[in-house]
Amino acid sequence: MLSMSAAEAVIEKLKAANLCNPVTLGKAGESLCEIPVRPNNIGLVLSSGLNSVAAVAEAGIKVTSKAMSGVINASKRGSFWSL
Asked: Closest Cα partner for 44 from 70, 7, 9, 14?
């Protein structure tokens, strides 16, 4: 299990390679965007897709990606242009 400082170091490397722009990082036992971060886990909110997560996995670091609050069927979304 990576420590928070090790996770932050990985994120800094991803940012330097323009692969990651995290919105926020959450520690175990805290809530992140109203979603609890379980013990021995780190929560990460990304606005740039999962390319950075794939890069971390390819580097040999175990990752799990879950939609924690829910998913929306793409056909149910409205058009951006109608906003």
From this structure: 7
End-to-end CA distance of the chain: 42
Whole-angstrom distance, CA of residue 57 vs CA of residue 67: 18
Rounded CA-CA distance 66/53 in Å is 12
Provide the phi-psi class of 76: left if phi over 0, else alpha when psi is between -120 and 50, else beta. alpha
User: What tokens were used for 44?
Assistant: 């990460």
Who wins on pLDDT, 35 or 74? 35
Rounded to whole angstroms, how far apart are CA atoms 42 and 3?
9
pTM of the model: 0.48
- Report angle CA 66, 70, 73 to the nearest 5 degrees: 105
